[in-house]
Amino acid sequence: MRAPRSELPITIEDVSLRSGSVTILESVSLVLAPGAPTVLIGPNGSGKSSLLRLATGLVSPTLGRVTWGGRVTTGGDRCAIVFQRPVMLRRSVAANVAFALRHEAKGRRHRADRIAELLDLVGLAALGARPARRLSGGEQQRLALARALARDPEILFLDEPTANLDPAATKAVEDIITQVAAAGVKIVLATHDLGEARRLAGEVVFMLRGRVHESAPAKLFFAGPATQEAQAFLKGDLVI
Q1: All residues at 6 or more sequence positions from 186 whose CB lies less than 8 Å from its CB, including other chains
Q2: Number of compact structural domains in the chain
Q3: 105 in a domain, yes or no?
């Protein structure tokens, strides 16, 4: 049997993204390779979320190109994305996950086992019958992770996954991310939380004004960023 075709690396080549007269991303080049999580950091409006959408194929570049595993396509088949405020379907927790599995060709028993496995992974096994919209914010974010993982992604994109969550809910989400990354799923995460970046990142990409200002292994970046803008951001100064 042939091995599944890989979507990695995702290569972003001199990409710009514009909306009318507004430049959202400018001349961005970046390679998202297999390995430890890549964390995008930078102030609000720096282009982190737009870069995630570009990498997943949700938006197309105005200039430049994005390739998945060396191929130019309209987007990767083996990637999933979780947004800051995921939409919960008007059905139970288990049925939300079942909806993500609706195109699977395998039988009902397999889908039931897969739903149970995913809910156990995200700590929601006891809440399968509860209406999804009655979950807390942290529980909804964990359910969104379960739905994304139902796609069996090679790459999982996360846009501010713990924003507005309390410390306990943040830890629960981060623990799942760490477990998924350890299982070999490439994580690409956008956050403005430097603590989260320190805890999760293998590689840091610092963005400002729609550009990638710096990209480095996390230990090197946090020990001594190369650009003045990144140094100021780490110190907590306003960077605009």
Answers
A1: 8, 32, 33, 34, 35, 37, 38, 154, 155, 156
A2: 1
A3: no
pLDDT tens digits for range 18-75: 999 999 999 999 999 999 999 999 999 999 999 999 999 999 999 999 999 888 876 6
Task: Confirm whether pTM is higher than 0.90.
Answer: yes
142: helix, strand or coil: helix
Residue 158 confidence class, pLDDT cut points 50, 70, 90: very high
Q: What is the largest CA-CA distance in the chain?
A: 56
Strand partners, 203: 38, 217
Q: What is the pLDDT of residues 67-98, one digit of tens each?
A: 998 888 766 678 999 999 999 999 999 999 99
Residues whose CB falls within 8 Å of the CB of residue 237, separated by 6 or more in sequence, listed in order: none
Cα dihedral 27, 31, 37, 42 in deg (nearest 10): -10
- The arrangement of strands across the sheet holding 155-159 comes to 79-82, 155-159, 186-190, 38-41, 203-208, 211-217
Residue 144 in any domain: the answer is: no
Identify the CATH number of the domain in which residue 160 sits.
3.40.50.300
Range(s) of the domain holding residue 226: 10-89+152-235
CA distances from 132 to 40, 73, 125, 137, 200 (A): 29, 34, 13, 10, 27
Any domain includes 130: no
Answer whether residue 96 is part of any domain: no
